[in-house]
Amino acid sequence: MKCLSDYLWQTIVPLIFFSFIWLLFKYLNTEEEIRKAQEEKTIMELKFLKSQINPHVLFNNLNTVYSYAIEKPEETPDLILKLSENLKHVLYESNADFIPLEKELNYIDNYIAFQKIRTEGIKKIHYKKSINSLQHNIAPLLLITLIENAFKHSTTNSDIHITINVNNGVLICTCENEYIVSEDKLNQRIGIKNMEKRLKLLYENHYSLKINKSKTYLVSLKLDLV
């Protein structure tokens, strides 16, 4: 019995030990596979969300350039340059998760310049910036969603207020516009929902998004820049 006991002890203990090691490696491999799958899912979601940036913006800008080429040909080259810069930004510079803040702000400046031309005599645009440092990075094509919505859903003959402040690494962007309540319920602001998904993927607990619907539609986004 003693010999049998010693034999079992010498046999079972190594089996248990190596079984534990095998299970441990299997668990670690599974965890690694899950982590890679989650990373791939995150990358795919970000690509999908960025691909939903409305192509109608390009179409509208081309129409603006065409109109200026006929009515104000001397100002057309500057518009073409702005459009070229924005196309470069969307097609090439926005592929990274984060890009220099200066590039994103230049893209927004150009976008609003086009909108001021397109909505001249129809809407009043009040655009203000206060930037204490450009030495930061930001997720590309993020703020444009708020700004686009302000133009897209604002009423005719109304005011649009856009403010971007950067102070001590914190960015606050606010957009305010008059809107029609019934149309807002129908549209459900799909762009805002997609933007929220990107914020959760890229900024986690380092952002806050507030929406206030009263007499105007007011959106405020606060970001901890990197």
* Cα-based radius of gyration, to the nearest Å: 26 Å
Strand content: 15-25%
Please identify the oligomeric state.
single chain
Number of helical elements: 7
Mean pLDDT metric: 80
CATH fold-level assignment of the largest domain:
Heat Shock Protein 90
Q: Which residues sit in consecutive blocks of at least 5 with pLDDT less than 50?
A: none
Describe this structure in words.
The protein has helices at residues 2-51, 56-71, 76-91, 101-118, 143-152, 181-187, 190-202; strands at 99-100, 124-131, 137-138, 159-167, 170-177, 207-213, 217-224. It is 58% helix and 19% strand. The chain has two domains: 1-51; 52-224, Histidine kinase-like ATPase, C-terminal domain (Heat Shock Protein 90, 2-Layer Sandwich). It is an alpha+beta fold. A five-stranded mixed β-sheet has the order 2-4-5-7-6, covered by helices on one side. Helix 1 crosses helix 7 (190-202) and helix 2 (56-71) runs antiparallel to helix 3 (76-91).
Task: Summarize this structure as a short list of keywords or feature phrases.
single chain; 226 residues; alpha+beta; Heat Shock Protein 90; two-stranded antiparallel ribbon; 19% strand
Briefly characterize the structure.
The chain is of the alpha+beta class and 226 residues long.
Write the layout of secondary structure elements.
Layout: H1 2-51, H2 56-71, H3 76-91, E1 99-100, H4 101-118, E2 124-131, E3 137-138, H5 143-152, E4 159-167, E5 170-177, H6 181-187, H7 190-202, E6 207-213, E7 217-224
Parallel strand pairs: 2-4
Antiparallel strand pairs: 1-3, 4-5, 5-7, 6-7
